[in-house]
Amino acid sequence: MPKKRSGGGLTGTQQAAKFLGVSVLSGAVLAGIALPAFGVLGLAAKGTVQGFDEIPADLKRPPLSQRTTILDAEGGQIATVYSRDRTVVELKDISPYMQNAIVAVEDARFYEHGAIDLKGVLRALNRNAQSGGVAQGASTLTQQYVKNVFVEEAGDDPDKVAQATQQTLGRKIQELKYAIQVEEELGKKKILENYLNITFFGQQAYGVEAAAKRYFSKSAKDLNLEESAMLAGLVQSPSRYDPVNDVEEATKRRNVVLQRMAAVGDISQAEADRAKATPIKLKVSKPKNGCITAVDGAGFFCDYVREAFLSSPVFGKDREERNKIWNRGGLTIRTTLDPQAQKATQASITEHVYQSDKVATAVTMVQPGTGKILAMGQSKPYGFGKDETQINYSVDKRMGGSNYGFPVGSTFKPFVAAAALEQGRPPTQTYSAPYEMPYPSSISTCSGKPWVNYGDKQRLENENETEVGPYALQEAMAKSVNTYFVQMIEDIGLCPVVEMTNKLGVVQGNGQKLPEEPSPLTLGSTGISPLTMASAYATFANRGTYCTPIAIESIKTADGKSLEVPKSSCTKAMSERTADSINHLLRGVVDSGTGRAAGLGDRDNAGKTGTTDFRKNAWFVGYTPNLSGAVWVGSASQQVEMEYITIGGQYHEKVFGGQVPGPIWKDAMTGALEGKDSPDFVRVDIPDAPKPDDKGKGKPGDDPKPGGGGGGGQSPWPGISLPPDLIGGGNGRGGQGNNGGGNGGWDRNR
Fold first, then answer.
1. CA 680 to chain centre
2. Who contacts 688 (Cβ-Cβ below 8 Å, separation ≥6)?
3. Contact at 8 Å (CB) between 472 and 425?
4. Cis peptide before 566 (omega within 30 of 0)
5. How far apart are CA 432 and CA 468, in angstroms?
6. Distance in angstroms (rounded) separating the CA atoms of residues 531 and 366
7. Contact at 8 Å (CB) between 195 and 201?
8. Distance (Å, rounded) from C-alpha 451 to C-alpha 437?
9. How many helical (H) and strand (E) elements, i.e. helices and strands, does the chain have?
10. Distance separating alpha carbons of residues 447 and 515, to the nearest angstrom
11. Which residue from 225, 430, 537, 642 could staple onto 615, CB 3.0 to 4.6 Å apart?
């Protein structure tokens, strides 16, 4: 008999045996307490019947974490994401060889005993007492299943995992009581099914279905004898017996399982010998987890879907709760992504901007009237390598985008025009629009306190010296005349533009509202994301009704239950007449203005170019009645001036919005709309503006604005600079190519 430990008291084995005796006498048949003679007991033993009875009898079995599948609008797979790669299957879909193998090697008397195998416990206690350690265990499959439930519930929290797997007497007792409950509630077949679905088989594979796919590229129902034995052998130590890294050890362990199957009568000795002589033949499928594996360049859209889920209160009261649901997985998420539009977008990006270029492009497409995001791509792929990034240039910081968005240049001007039309200004509105001028001395704001240009210090100019007014709105829009639109906000004030952009969902890339100043509210000097711009322009296509962007169509859980998903919210932003007038004006941009290179010849289309200070950003935002798209080209860090530069293999002396982004938009839209309906805009009649008597005087009664010196290629607003934290990605994601938008940009018009 083992001696007492030094200092008195029973050994660990003696304490376990004593507890076992008490439990048997009380009618609670407990087992599995095969602890080492000198092991650490940890928790108080709860070694009385009363203590045992105090343990809660309800074992919570949360749904197993599984892979989530993200689909496009037509049901094609975009990517799978998971915290644990698992696909739950029923017992009937698991090979009988696999069922027999796991029972034979882990718990041969599984169908004969209850929750506890008393004969096995006594045998283990005796063996361990003789060896002074753990020479043999006695946990039944049911007990192992209970332990796996604790581990699953712990998730990826290392402290909780350590607590769930600690080898203490208290923990063993808890497992035993829950094992009794599980046996009573589930029965043997269900316990075996649950065990095979929950246990870890190595190589990131949880559950037998994922394991069969990982090692043999087949389903669990198709596993043969040798394959089943190998997988069953992995459970004891997935790392030690990993066939990918040590086929010799894996073969030895597999053969142990085969011999055990023969010993219990599952197979004959001859079958075991034949199987032992068969070399392990792997057909490994590498894990494909996460948005980095997304097809057709949809990695950033995939990541946007995740952010949309985690940020929506529809899926849980707070982000922590939503994150638990996401990590548990098992979801089938059908998205709004149109595979045709996505393929066309990525093909155009690849054609026009190379991954290795100094600059990047981002393209986003939105469906007018629904807010559905149909495509999203960029030239720097989703990843961690050279010329890759995790920053989604198409979206705001809170959704995984850049810190500030990107200055949008003259693509902002249609918002000013819409605000003016809503204020009652006619579409023939004319201003003197000189080549160069100071900002107005004072402009009204929403607060009632006017913006003031002290000492006429802030000045602006047009792209070319030949651009001298007077101009009417249509010509000013087509030529993208800076001074015209600054005179327009002097006329109507800044507040109508603020109110218009608020209705259009236009915010800075960092989520803040636009500054109530002339530069951002006329010339687009503030950073905005492509998705925001595409959604705002979709309002024009939708005859004045703005719809918030959405990416998720439907979600089903692993058990087929449908979850509620966020809906697009559509609100009236402007009158139909105003929207129709903007459509007419922007048709002129692609017909005969700065966006001619972007024009679609076979359908109604409209759009606007934009190029910012020092040509650090170039844009084209355009639309048809049934599709809106925004294209940005520039350096994510805002450090590259696009002059004398090669982009996509083509040399450019100077980059304009209509020159590089325009063709990208044209090719992407052409492919996305191929075979689709070709509706027309509602026509409006905008008469020619009255002709002034003298060039430069404007219409009768309109005082021409004075010209002046200055300007000439330098930033027109002294003291305005990019923010100090310009370079840095949204949401702390790291990676390269992080952006800040910056202020003080002025538009080069083209």
1. 35
2. 428, 472
3. no
4. no
5. 8
6. 8
7. no
8. 17
9. 23, 22
10. 12
11. 642
Angstrom CA distances, 98 to 192, 447, 693, stand at 11, 74, 93
Token pair of 687 as six digits: 């008469």
Helix (H) / strand (E) element for 654: namely: strand 650-654
Cα–Cα distance measured from residue 453 to residue 170, given in angstroms and rounded to the nearest whole number: 76
Q: Cα dist. 109→135, 147, 390 in Å?
A: 19, 19, 52
Interacting residues of 135 by C-beta distance below 8 A, sequence separation 6+? 127, 128
Contact present, 118 and 211 (Cβ < 8 Å): no
Q: For residue 93, how far is the Cα from the chain centroid?
A: 32
DSSP labels, 36-49: -TT----S----SH
| Residues in contact with 621: Cβ distance below 8 Å, sequence separation at least 6, in sequence order | 408, 411, 533, 534, 537, 607, 608, 610, 628, 629, 630, 631
Classify residue 200 by its DSSP letter: B
DSSP, res 704: P
Residue 206's DSSP bridge partners are 200
Whether 696 contacts 707, CB under 8 Å: no
Residue type, 283: K
Residue 17: which residues within 8 A CB-CB, separation 6 or more?
Answer: 125
The CA-atom distances, in angstroms, between 658 and each of 617, 682, 737 are 12, 25, 24
Using DSSP's 3-state secondary structure scheme, residue 617 falls into strand
Cα–Cα distances in angstroms (integers) from residue 505 to residues 411, 514, 690, in the given order: 15, 11, 35
Half-sphere exposure of 38 (CA within 13 A, CB side): 7
Residues in the chain predicted with pLDDT less than 70, given as ranges, are 1-60, 62, 119-138, 155-157, 160-161, 163-171, 690-750
What is the distance, to the nearest Å, from the Cα of residue 542 to the centroid of all Cα atoms in its chain? 28
* Closest to 468 (Cα-Cα) out of 705, 133, 219: 705
Distances (CA, A) of 729 to 379, 389, 400, 615, 734: 17, 9, 8, 22, 6
The pair phi, psi for residue 645, each rounded to 5°, is: -135, 145
Phi/psi of residue 125, each to 5°?
-60, -40
For 705, the 3-state DSSP assignment is coil
Q: What's the chain's Rg over C-alpha atoms?
A: 35
- Separation of alpha carbons 204 and 211, rounded Å: 8
* Per-residue model confidence (pLDDT) at position 3: 35
Bridge partners of residue 645, in order along the sequence: 652
Q: How far apart are CA 691 and CA 470, in angstroms?
A: 9
pLDDT given at position 425: 97
Packing angle, helices 118-131 and 12-25, rounded to 10: 160
What pLDDT was estimated at residue 166? 66
Q: Is the distance from CB of 505 to CB of 548 less than 8 angstroms?
A: yes
Q: How far apart are CA 546 and CA 93, in angstroms?
A: 49
pLDDT of residue 165: 66
> Kind of pairing, strands 332-335 and 68-71?
parallel
Spatial contact of 89 and 220, defined as CB atoms under 8 Å apart: yes
How far is Cα 522 from Cα 535, in angstroms, rounded to an integer? Answer: 19
